[in-house]
Design a protein that fits this description.
The protein is α/β, with parallel strands linked by helices. The chain has five helices and ten strands. A ten-stranded mixed beta sheet has the order 2-1-8-9-10-7-6-5-4-3, with helices on both faces. The radius of gyration is 16 Å and the shape is globular. The relative contact order is 0.18.
Length: about 190
C-alpha cells in the first residue's frame, strides 16, 4: 500500500513591503512521504516571496498555488497561473537537473529555482553554464542555516507572519522568529 501525503495547514499573513502586497492566505500543504519538513517549509517560504506575482504577472487575474511537486515531474512545487490556464510563474525548490529546468522555461513565462542545501554551490557551478540561454530563469540561494531553522517551524497547524523587505524575509510563528537572507545567483 502506498504511503499518503501528510497534510499541513497554515494561516499566513504576508507583508511584502518591496512589492506593496499585504494579504492573508489559508494554505493547505501536502507533504509527500519522501519530502522533508525542511523542503516543505522552503516551499512555504517561496509562496510568501511570490504571492505578489498574481498581481505583478497576471494583473490580479490569476491564482498562486502549490503544484504536485515531488508527486509529478510535470508540475512545479509552486505556480502562478492566469485564469486562462497559462503558467506565468513556475517555482521549484532544491537542485533540479538541466532538462526539467529547460522544460519549465518552455512552459512558463518565468521560472524560479530556490536552492537551500550545502550542496547548492557545487550544483550551481556545474549547471550554470548549461542554462545561460534562458532569459526566463532566476535562481536564488537560501543560506543552509536559515533553511534548516525553517524546518523547526513546521507544525501540522501553523500561524505564520512573513515580512519581505530589501531582499530578506522575516518569518514568525507563535514560537520562533527568523530573518532569512536570499541571494540571487541568476
Amino acid at each position: 500500500m502506498a504511503l499518503k501525503s501528510t497534510i499541513y495547514k497554515a494561516e499566513m499573513s504576508i507583508a511584502d513591503i518591496d512589492h506593496a502586497h499585504y494579504e492573508n492566505h489559508a494554505l493547505t500543504i501536502a507533504r509527500h512521504p519522501s519530502e522533508t519538513e525542511l523542503r516543505m517549509m522552503v516551499r512555504v517560504l517561496a509562496f510568501a516571496i511570490n504571492a505578489h506575482q498574481v498581481q505583478s504577472l497576471c494583473g490580479g487575474d490569476g491564482a498562486i498555488g502549490f503544484g504536485a511537486g515531488l508527486s509529478s515531474a510535470e508540475e512545479p512545487d509552486l505556480w502562478v497561473k492566469d485564469f486562462q490556464g497559462l503558467i506565468k510563474l513556475w517555482v521549484d525548490v532544491g537542485q533540479p537537473e538541466e532538462k526539467p529546468i529547460a522544460r519549465a522555461c518552455q512552459r512558463a513565462e518565468l521560472v524560479q529555482i530556490y536552492c537551500f542545501s550545502q550542496a547548492a554551490d557545487p550544483w550551481w557551478k556545474r549547471i550554470e553554464p548549461k542554462l545561460n540561454r534562458s532569459s526566463r530563469l532566476q535562481v536564488f540561494r537560501i543560506a543552509p542555516e536559515g533553511a534548516e531553522a525553517l524546518s523547526h517551524m513546521a507544525q501540522r497547524q501553523m500561524h505564520l507572519q512573513a515580512t519581505i523587505q530589501d531582499a530578506a524575509i522575516s518569518l514568525s510563528s507563535d514560537k520562533d522568529h527568523l530573518t532569512i537572507p536570499i541571494e540571487r545567483l541568476r
